[in-house]
Amino acid sequence: MSQAEGTTDITTGGSSGIDDRKNATIRYVFFSCALVTVLTTLGIILVLVQGSIEFFQQVSIVEYFTGTEWSPVIRPRSYGVLPLIWGTLLITAGSALIAIPVGTATAIYLSEYADPQVRKVIKPTLEILAGIPTIVYGFFALSFITPIIQRVFPDTGTFNAAAGAIVVGIMVIPMVSSLSEDAMSAVPDDLRNAAYGLGATKFEVSTRVVFPASLSGVIASYILALSRAIGETMAVTLAAGMHPQITMDPLEPIQTMTAYMVQIGISDVSVGSIGYQSLFAVGLTLFAMTLLMNLFSLWIKSRYREEYQ
Amino acid sequence: MSTSNPFAEGTEDIARKRLIGRVFVAICFASTLVGIVALVALIVDVLYESWGWVTWEFLTYPPSQVIENFLPGGRGAGIYPAIVGSIFLIALTAVFTVFLGVGAAVYLEEYAGDNWLTSFIEANIANLAGVPSIVYGLLGLAIFVRGIQLGSSLIAGALTLTLLILPIVIVSTQEALRAVPDSQRQAAYGVGATQWQVIRDVVLPRALPGIMTGTILSLSRAIGETAPILMVGAATSLFVAPDGLTSPFSAMPMMIFEWATLPEPEFQHVAAAGIVVLLTILLLMNAIAIFIRNRYDPRS
């Protein structure tokens, strides 16, 4: 930085070479902090890919993606990941069935109908749901949700996919409701007033003007919620069990990709064993699925965003 | 004007339109209640299950496999090593994240030019925030535990949690830095301050409350995380609190997971008692964050 003669100087020596070098050094220190985030991504990819390569040297990639039996640790061994993917998708679909309608309706209520004072209380209250540790949801599923399911369907076991889907659904409601509400509140009042001027009712304004106008933000919130459900770990491990199988029955126990990783994590598998390597293959599959969804969400948001002045 | 009015149909039957409107509001309101009711049910359930189990002994004794020890008149058993483990873990994580998170945010807001590298780093941070926490656990396991041979230690757990919450801390710190008015920076430059002096003496002090609020909220997320520390190898059967960076550690969510999976039904109450302790600490951290925001943050 150049300095004019005679300015008031709060530095001790003005702009000397030492100062320039010091500033450059500081800049590099800050830059390396930012670089840590890039290294984290590289580290994740490297670790997952390297572990997966070791895994696929022993297991055929075709068997991994087409096999319908998953039992990499217990004999007879088989390495078909489909039951784990199925378990994950079952939980994700079930939680979406709860979180998407409930979250969207909540967002419409908060954005279009609720008194601003009410909204100021309800929105942060709902966001508490997102701040509760997922292990607590797992406990809630075991001690509250599953007993209710068992009262309706007495044959249900302690672990079942339905309880897992329900608690994950509850957990992601605030993601859908808060992000959708943000998108709906951003729709300018001019659009609402124009519709009222044409004789629209408040219901019509909400569903045929505000909702379509905020669609890109709303859909992005859905995808983020789904991606969160896919990666959800402790609640589904506790609620849905450790039984990898392809079933349509939500009252059966299942195992998600994340729950399998927990199962290996708490057992004593030795480094270099096939069980240890399978962690990284499953981890890479999970990482790829969530990454695709997150990128898709960003793309929708930027591609279909309506700009309002 | 030949465009027809899209809202003209059905206007003969106003009563029907009104009814649809009322039903719709009722549905939307009921949906809003779903989340609230679930929250209340969860809290009541945890309090009910833990009633009478959160005792002084529970807070001050190490865990036990025998349920009688948790009962009044037993030898005493509880969550003590896990409380200390969690506090150490979060304190270490705080040191690492404040340094890295504030450094990265200052670089992005104050130094970085508007170029491809900056947008790449920012897009990368946005993506990292969406990576499931258990994947960070795998990273910690492969790099910190095995790779640089830290073992299943306190520091390996803290480094893993640091990487996990770093994206959130960076984003919230960026927001706090952005809220410092440019005129203050210009005024400092105007009296001859170097960029570093502007950041150290003007920007950071002004942004400090915002940075602290964001960091504490992120740490309160880290303290409840189970999956990453489970992969790193947090223990569930430790009887002493950790006494060094490389000593094995236990943590509250890990103990809750252990108790919740035990077959004896009484351990459900022990798990609930652990949850009460965890949620209380979480609540305290959030209260501190909100207090700092309301008291010191110029934005509020």
TrEMBL record, chain A:
GO terms for biological process: phosphate ion transport. PROSITE patterns: ABC_TM1. The keyword Transmembrane applies. NCBIfam families: phosphate_pstC. Belongs to the binding-protein-dependent transport system permease family. CysTW subfamily. Keywords: Cell membrane, Membrane, Phosphate transport, Transmembrane, Transmembrane helix, Transport. It is a multi-pass membrane protein. InterPro entries: MetI-like, MetI-like_sf, Phosphate_PstC. GO terms for cellular component: plasma membrane. This is Phosphate transport system permease protein. It is found in: Cell membrane; Membrane.
From TrEMBL, chain B:
It is a multi-pass membrane protein. The chain crosses the membrane at residues 23-48, 79-108, 120-144, 150-171, 229-250, 270-292. Residues 83-288 form the ABC transmembrane type-1 domain. GO terms for cellular component: plasma membrane. GO terms for molecular function: phosphate transmembrane transporter activity. InterPro entries: MetI-like, MetI-like_sf, Phosphate_PstA. The keyword Nucleotide-binding does not apply. Its main location: membrane. SUPFAM superfamilies: MetI-like. GO terms for biological process: phosphate ion transmembrane transport. Keywords: Cell membrane, Membrane, Transmembrane, Transmembrane helix, Transport. It is found in: Cell membrane. It comes from the Archaea. Belongs to the binding-protein-dependent transport system permease family. CysTW subfamily. NCBIfam families: 3a0107s02c (TIGR00974). This is Phosphate transport system permease protein PstA. It comes from Natrialba swarupiae.
